[in-house]
Each structure stands twice: as C-alpha cells, then as structure tokens.
Amino acid sequence: MRRVLLLLLFFLAASPARAAELTGRVRDAESGAALGFVNVQARGLSPEIAELTRGTLGAGDGTYRLTGLTPGRWLIRFSRIGHEVLEDSVLVTEERTATLDVALVARALLGKGVLVEAERYAEIRDIQTGFVTLDPEVLADLPGVVEADPVRVLELLPGVQTASDYSSGLYVRGGGPDQTLVLLDQVPVYNPTHAFGFFSTFNADALQDVNLYKGAYPARYGGRLGAVLDVRTRDGSTKEFTGGAGISLIAAHATGGGPVGGGSWTASLRRTYLEPILSLVRRSVEDIPSYYFYDGNARLTLPLAGGRLTCTGYGGRDDLQLDIDADNTLQLRWGNTLGSASWGRNFGERGYVRLQGSWSEYRSESSILALTTPIDFSNHIRDAEFRADASRVGGKHKLSAGLGASLYDVRYEQTFNSESQIDYHKTPSELAAFIEDEWRARASTEIQTGLRLGLIEGGRVLWEPRLAVSQQLDPRVKAKFGAGMYHQYLQLVSTEALSAADFYVPLDETVPPGQSWQSVLGVEYQPGDAWRTSLETYYSGLGDLITLNNDLPAGVQVNNAADFFYAGGEGWASGLEFFVEKRRGKVTGWFGYGLGWTRRTFSQLNGGEPFAPKYDRRHDINLVAQMRHGKWKFGSNFVYATGQAFTPAAARYAVRNPATGGYSSDPQLIPGTRNSARLLPYNRLDLSAGRDFSLFGLPAEWFVQVFNVYSRRNEWFVQYDTSGDVVEATVVPMLPVIPSLGLNFQF
Amino acid sequence: MGKLTWVLALQCLLVAACANRDSADLFAPEAGTIVVDAFLIVGEPLPSIALTQTLAADVPYTFAQAALSGALVVVTHELGAAVYAEATPPGTYVPHDGTVPLEVEAGALYTLDVTAADGRRVRATTRTPQRFSVPEWLLLDATGTTVQRSLASFAEYGDGVFTQPENQLEYAQGLLEARFDPTGILGIQVGLFSRSPGSPLVIDPDLVDEEDLDRINSSPPFEPGDGKVRLPWFAIFFEGRYVLKVWTMDVNWFDLARTDPVLRGGGFGFGGQAGDDFERPIFHVEGGIGLFGSGAVDSVGVVVHPRP
Question: Under CATH, what is the fold of the domain B5-127?
Fold first, then answer.
C-alpha cells in the first residue's frame, strides 16, 4: 500500500510558486456533516480588486479551493440547495493560503414556520459541461408517480428522458440506459430499478446528492459511452441522533443516524406494505400475484489514522410470485447488493489520497412453469474493485490521478424443459488508470485535461483523452467546452418492459468495445442572483456499437460475445439544450428545452440503412415550478416530448409453415422502414401540495400528489392484431391520472 | 381577466388531454411484391407451389385477392426441369411436364424460376438436406436423466404404433426425447399433430378457451446441438393420438423460420415498445419474398392419456 501511495504522489511533485488562494471545508450547521458540491463565489472587496470575481464548486467531501486570487479582501459567498446562503469576508495574501471553514444552515427547519431564503437549485460553476447536481430534499418536493424518485426526476432536465411511465431507465442526449454509468458511493449499480423499472433503487432519505454528467465526463470516470449518474449517500449527524419516517401509497420508509466514535452512522430502510393486504385478498380471489420490494442503505464514517474511514452498504430485492395452479406458476426475483470501504486523508494542505475497495452484485432469477414445462432464466454479475486516487494542489494546478482494478464474474443461464439452452459464464478483469490536471491558466480561464487508460481482456488498451475548458467572458457570462473519447466494454442488454431480465455481457476478443467521441459547447449567463440561463450544443460520434441479435434460434451455442450481438454498428447524436432557472423568491423553478437527433446504422438491420432508434425524440420541454407559502408548499411539472419512433406495419403475406404443412391462423405481417413512424407527442402535468404540521410534537408534513392531472393516455407502443381479415392496430397507453398521498415526520 | 386566464388554461389542458390518433398513421402500406410459397420434402413428390402478392396491411387479406395468376413457373434440377401449370384455386401451380425426377432427392440443388405475366421475375434456389431418421424415440424421467423406455416407430409398426403399449403416454409424465445424428444438420423444427378429432382437453379447461387452441402446432426452429430434442408438454392440449414430426431444414427454411415472428412461434412483434423485434424476415428469394425451401423428416406416433 505504501508503494502505491508513493507511486501516486511521485508525479504530483512541487509545482511553480504559488499565488494567493483560499481553501476550507463546508459543513451542515446542525448535523456537522460535510456538505458536498457547495457553490463558492468570490467578489473583490478591496478597491484594487473590486471588479474581480472567482468561483468554484466544492468537492464531494465538503472541501473547496479557490486559486488565482489577487491579494486583498474578498467577499466569499457559499450557497447550496437546501441551505441558507452564507457570506463572509477574508483577507488573502501571497504569503500563506487562507482558510475559511463555514457551516451552512438548512433551509427549512420543520415546525418553526420560518421562511428561509435559500438557494433552490445547484449552480453549475464547475468547469464541466452538462453537469447537474440535485439535492434529494428538493427532488422529494416535486410531484411524481406515487413516490418521489430521485432518478425519475432527472427526466425533467433537458436532454434527459425516460422511455415510458413504467421505466426509470434514462436516455441521455440520444443514448440509451445501457450507455449511462450508475454509481452509488463510487460503486457501480448494475440494475438500479425496483418494480419492473417503475422506481429506482435510490431512496431519497439516504442520499446527499444526485449528480449527473450528461456527457463529456472527466477522466476519473469511464466504462460507458454516454453519461454518468453519480449518487452519494449522506453522512449522519455528528451531534445527536436524528431520524425520520414516512409512508406513501406504495411503501413505508424510515431513516436514522447519529454520532459514533468520533464519526457518524446513518441507515435507511424502505419496504412495500401491500403484500399482507394482497395475501388477504388472495384468500377469496385467485390469481392475485404476490409482490414486494425492499431496500436498505447504511453508512458509517469514522476517523482513522489521521483521515476518515467510510463504509457504505446497500441491499435491495424485488420478489414477484404468481401461482395459477400446480402446473402454471411464475416467479421473478432480482436485486442488488453493494458494499464499499474507503479511507481518505489530507496530506498537508495540498495533497489528498483515497483508497477504496468495493463489490457490487446483481442477481436476477426467473422461473416459469407453463403447463408443466419449466422455463428458467438467471443472470448474475459480480464486480470486485480496488482503486486508489490522489490529488495535489500546486500553484495554478490541481493534479489528480488514480488506479483501479476490477474483477467481474458474469453468468447468464437459460434452461427450457429441464435442458440447458444457454450457459454463458465469463470472468474478465479490467485495469484503469487516469491522470487529470485542472489548470487555472488565467484569472478567467480554467483548463482541465485528462487521460484515461483502460486495459481489458485480450490485452487491449483503450486510450481516452479528455478536455474541458471554461472561459469567463464577463462577470456574468461563462463559456465552456468539453470533449473526450469513451469506450464501453461491459454491455447491457435491456428489456424495457421487464428490467429484471436485463443482463450484462462483457465483450471479448470477438467483438471490439464500443466507442464514442463527444464534444459539448455551452454558455452560461447569470443576469442576477435569482436567475441563471444556459445554452449547450453537443455532438457525439459512435462506433463499434452492438445490438442484441433477436434472431438467434433456440439451442444455439453461445460461447462468446459475437454469438449474442450484431456488432459493428455506427451512430451519432446531436442537439441543443436551453435552460433557464429561477432560484430565488416565492416561486422557483426552471424551464428546459431540448432539441435533438440521433441515428444508428447496422449492416444487419434495416437493410444497412441508417434509422432512428425509438428514443430519437426531436423536442423535449420541461417546466417545473415550486412555491412555498407559510407552511404550505406546492409543486408542478409539465413535460412535453416528441413521440417515440416505431416501425409501422406495411404489408401482409401468407406462407405455409413447413413443419405443419399448413398456414398459420393469421397471415404474416411485413414491417415498413424501421422506426419510420411516430407515436403521438407525450405530454403530462403533475401537481403536488403539502403542508407542515406537528405530529405528537414532532415536525411532520403530509403531501398530496397527482400524476398526469388531465389523464392523458400517452402512447406506449403499437400492437397489431392479425387475427381478423383486416389488421387492427391498437395503441397501448401509458399511465392515467394517479393521485397519491403520504406522510413524513422527523424525530 | 383572472377568470379568462383560468378558462383559457382549462381549455389548453383539455386540448392537451385529447390524444387524437388517425389510425392510418400506424401503417405504411405497400403491396404487390411477389410471394413464393413452396417447400420440398426429401423422398416425396415435387410439391405444389403457391404464388401470391403482398397486400397492404390495412386492407382485408384473402388468398383469392392475393393470388398471382398467369405466371410461368419452372423448377430445374441438375437432371432436368419441371414446368408447372396453374391449377385451382388461382395462384396454385402443380408439376405438369418435365424431366425432373418426381421424388425429391437428398443433397440436390433445385432452382425455381417464376416469370409473372407482367414480366417480373423471381428466382430462388434450395439445396435439400440429407435423408433424416431418428433412431431413438425415448421417454425419460421428469429430470431428463434416466431413460424409462424406447417408443415404437412407424418403420416397425406403421399405424400400429398407436396400439403399442410403450407408446401410451400419461400427460406431463416424463420427458419425450428424440435422439439423432446431428452431423450436417443446420436446424431442427418439430411439428405436433393431434390425430383424434374432437378429443377432449387434457389440460385444465379453466385456463384457456378451447377455441383458441390448435390441434396442430410447431416448435420454433433450433440448432441440433448434440442431437437431442425434447418435446415440451405445453404444446400438447388434447387427449388421444399425436404424430410428432422432427424436421431438418435447409438454410432458406431455417432463416425464415427463425426471423419470422409467426413461424418461430413467438406471436407477433410489437411495433412500438418491442419494436426492436419487428424486423423484416430473411427471405432467400430474388425479386420477391417468401419461401422456396426444403427439408427431411421422421416421425413417431403416441397416444396421450389424461392424468388419473
């Protein structure tokens, strides 16, 4: 371990003479927990620096660093969603690094009836393009389907969509769910869904923040062609035991946390409670399925060897059982288990090292008995990873580097009639290293360069350069550019209607890993403290894409990746996103508009001609509003999107089935050009209302939500019925209006 | 002004709630492609050939309306050619004249040439598989690990197999398995034929509507693997006599059967949500679509009895 540390720090040697800078740590005033991703803005107070401004976004552990400060007195402004803004002044000199540690007060302490003026949404002041960080407390106030879901709320951002009301899989800037890396405390989550994709596995009670890189993500991440969703759990209070609980129409949840051994702990549980009710109904009504899900998060933070040890864990499971009779049954079980242990420590004022070991496991098992014939599917992925990261600040540079090793165990099995059809088992490994430099080239210019190297099975080396540049054009205007190359070695085969059936396939020597080249150009304009606008345009080129070969016959021998997929696909995605946000005042919210195109080309599909994937949706409009009035709070979402693409039916023909010698009962159907037609545009309005009150002396709130207020039956897919003389097309709709209510309280 | 705002907002919501769908937008009609329908069975006479044209998806389909009449149809073989003549119903063509041996030969190349009355031409070829036989028809235990007994074959007893005691099966007891030499076999498909018209259901009648069940079924195509194919009980719905046919297929039949949603037994692919599965099947027909394929077959007869 010592050699690893020395190796990482070797190239982070002393750099040129330092300029004035400010560092510090931000904590929550009540709990003492570190607050990550705090927006830090500096404005010159001394006459000689009155026109100067600087800004940065704090790190996930609560630390921040402002460099390139001209010596003098500065006004430092700390803001973070869900917390009161704090301002303080500090004198910065060349002789030493100034330090300013602060504590922010949470925005609304329930029951006190105090309206707190606070930042509602995160500012994107980092160098990164397309980066969004959201506070789960704010997300919980937005109306959703029965329960607030941190991931589904992301669809309210431009460039981010879900496939349907039934799916929480994200489609980001023309890429599918398989192209988004989902992390929980830096550990991959391989199937982050509950209830067949209806909800994500993320319990808002347990989360500190939800961070989304919509594209051109930095070198510290890798392994996916499109986006990164980085979700972090929160620390417990270091001062006293706190907790909360609540209930909605679907599930009950509870959270607790408090100090321990100089650190803190926190735990959250969530479980559906309908199953006992359904079991009562089942006594009189047959064929009622049994279904439940549960999940739990835990986090422990302790001081250790001058640094901090953090252990996290997550476990979740879904279970569906349907017993029609002794000859016909259905059972589906799936779930994730994650765990990590990390240790991080500052070395002096400039260095930081972090070591982490983790494992992630996803297992899905499906058993069907159809008229006594057993049919079984199972898929299983395990991932053990060790990584070491280090960073060092020197002058105008912050250098970061990391090394990681991953071992995978991937297995997919399918049996039919007690006979094995597919038994695919691979245990690949992967090494990755990155180096990254954040350079403040000038007072108004930041440049982040990075390089990521991956070594995968077969000795293949993947080179991935990254670049991000931000240029302050004006005190209120910043331009940004981001670009990079990305590869994907672990491929997800996803089924929209049944996320439990999703499985992973590592690409071996028979199929090269997918690759993408991304570029993003954007400009941000903040006319005042209350408003912020941004405009971004992006382009992604895609190569070596794969898609599942749906024409595999039964009993086919599957020994490698080429047996599963059509490979060699190409594609591109391009678009424009406009975002305007109101962050202060009685009414807050945002408006987002996305305009996008995406295309795919496979020689094996559509006659080799380019086609639009179903998630190619031209326009995407989101309008979100929230209002607080005394003890009341109100929320609304309006969503509009171009309908998904689908393949229309074109012609009918009849050919006998040689195995029976006769015609099938219905003539066959020939499809038209792939995805050449469109479903009707999707639109929906959700409303919510809630009120704070006191429940046996405890601060509490009740809430009412209405999903799809005007009950528009948005279109999901087209079903063709060929049983009659004329083909009948039926559009299967998505969810109607769904009201829900719930109660939360704290203790 | 406040009331007007509310009224306008309500009207906008009502308009937004309406999903006006013109069903014609769900189709992309095209028609007039020549469809070939013919498959050769090794050891049997040259078959009839059906020629039709595709009809648009949004109009009623009948064979009479789709039939292609007046075409010149010729099947050639290395030993000669057979000219077909149109029979009834229209669109049906039968061997009329020629020098091609009337029994389809194994491992031989056959070529179909069609010239429609309007001059359009269609061509397809098939290389017939080798003769095929299943040496072992077995009944295994429920786990498939132990052979309980061998079944009698048509070669031994002809139609007398239905009275052989070893061919009397109790529904869902044990596993039926055919074992054969997979050498040179591209694909396998199984046909199941109930030969007891009007026989009662052997499954729970509450589960399904009897009118929805076919007395003739087939499996999806699959690769021969190690030369064993198991016959699932969920394809058998009725008591009485069953003939189980195991087919070997040429590449034309195999490719169409595994890519056509109906022939592979998967029902119909959804146009939207599962639209990734709504792909054009593979037709090895130049100038048209359909099937000009070939296969070889062996079969066994059993009698299915209900569970006591």
Answer: Immunoglobulin-like (2.60.40)
